[in-house]
Amino acid sequence: MRIRKTVVVLFVLLLIVALLPLTTTARPAPQATIEQALLDRLLAEGSANFFVKMAVDADLSAAYGMSWHDRGVYVWNALNDVAAKTQAPVIEFAKQHGLDYTSMLTTNSVFIRGGDLNATQGLAALLGVAYLRLERIYQVDPLVEAQGPAPEYSVAWGIPDTNADDVWALGYQGDGIKVASIDTGVQVSHPALDQAFACASPSDPACWKDPFGNCGGSVCDTNGHGTHTMGTMVGDNDASLAYWVGMAPDATWIACHGCRTTSCYDSDLNTCADWILAPGGNAGNRPNVVNNSWGGGGDDNWYLANVNAWRAAGIFPAFSAGNSGSSCGTLGSPGDYDESFASAAHDSARTVAYFSSRGPSAYGHDPYTKPNISAPGYNVRSAYPTNTWALMNGTSMASPHTAGAVALVWSACPSYLGNIDGTFQLLQNNTDTPPAGNCSAPPDGQGNYTYGYGYLNVLKAVQACAATCTPVTNAAFTWTPALPTAGQQVTFSGTASGSAPISYAWTFGDGGAGSGATVNHAYTTAGDYIVTMTAGNACGSDPAQDTITIQPAPAYSLHIYDLTLSKSGTRTYKITAAVTVHDQAHAPAAGATVYGTWTLPNGKRSYKTAVTDSGGVATLSVSGKKGTYELCVTNLVKTGYTYNSDANEHLSCESIVVP
Asked: pTM score, two decimals?
């Protein structure tokens, strides 16, 4: 009999096991976000090109206090170090799964070509990955057809319009300054440009980068757009030429082929951004100015890390505003970033071009009104392949006027070299006054959303920076509150003496940085931090340094102030507990959740929660017959607070007898 029972039990156990679902090894849940557009593409086509963005970015703030040479090396090394430490798991995954990849330094991301859904899910599950996004395609700013006859000048009209020729007369033509272009390439042998190429060989990687390999290893132009923009920046003023078209004819140039024809794939644009920081792998080869006559829709910060890295390395970021006007709020990215310098376009009569994109920027008007400035961009003559000249319209033509103007300014005033915010202000503060435009002005009255701060006048800018200058002295700063705590916003205010404009650059000792006479910063942890403010103008700088002590954040806590029980009713009774909760300052704590456990007369338990009102009181009730009822408060919960039972002013348990 016992044997039969044993057999039956074993049979039942085997049947249960057989009915259990089989367990398979599951793919780890993704830790990172996969962009919906990428998922849609994968579902539709099976594979896609995409970026794997790492969660950590390099801290480049220390570069701002370094010399031109040192800051470039520092930025390049910092980006490489962080990429090497964080991208290793992604690169190893790509190798193991046969994926074609490229490491991107400035954005700390890895570009994957032709990955499928399994690859995206596997990559998203890796620790340290922030998100995956689809590769995007941008455009060189579309050219606009001319309307009406074009002016016929041997000197392109934009040169006298900006007074660049008057700067030449002072002896400054961009000597010693190197400009770069991310565009469709350049005809290196064009007679207006051949003398200014910065390398002896057109295939030298220190002067030319072609991410997709369209040009066969040597400088070329696959559209003509890039030759035109480069001609406006540095075209020669040799007497043998039919036209003089360049703002800074003695500057040199390098180029990256970021736009294959009219399309600019962001894998190419990001590769170019890295290359600009260290052409040929050497930060000493980097340009002083980079022009970007391309863009996309506004309010898209996908390229911001690149712009910030250029700024940290002392490279001026010139961008077109876009050709989506004349409606307001049509600025394109990256030109609409506060960190970029965006040029609107006007014609030879100084009327804003109808196509020129208008502000305001999606990123606001602080610290700068957008667009920043207006420059020649209608019926602009410049170099064009092959060995000819062409008239073009667009903010694509306006931005290289600004880039060339920066080359003139930095040639005339080397103290401004690498001072990006100081140069922004120098150009903006020395414009010719514009009309009101059609898109109003920011609340602070600084310029307007059509022309920016006004018409580009490089002569005024050079005169302002080259004038008799009083070096900066007496740099000092204060902060409020005097005894800040972790997580609290601290306002720093700097002052200095010397010739205006004075720029202020800050490092806060925790990896953070800022600019402006007044800045805000919050420290996440308590401790002592060395704050450095460097005040500078055209003829010098003066650092100030102090130590700020950040106190620990106050400990927010809750405790029981009072606990009373009451009863009501007959036969079936309602027993109510009133729990009064106070905070660490002994003030009533509203919005706290009280967790309580009732022990009923029959020994069973009932679990209740309630939220305190404005007086800090929560009520928890049960119903039952006669007997003894006990309530014990087990926890008090409120975001940012802890339950400090040691501070209770009343016992956490209370009982009542219902006779």
From this structure: 0.70
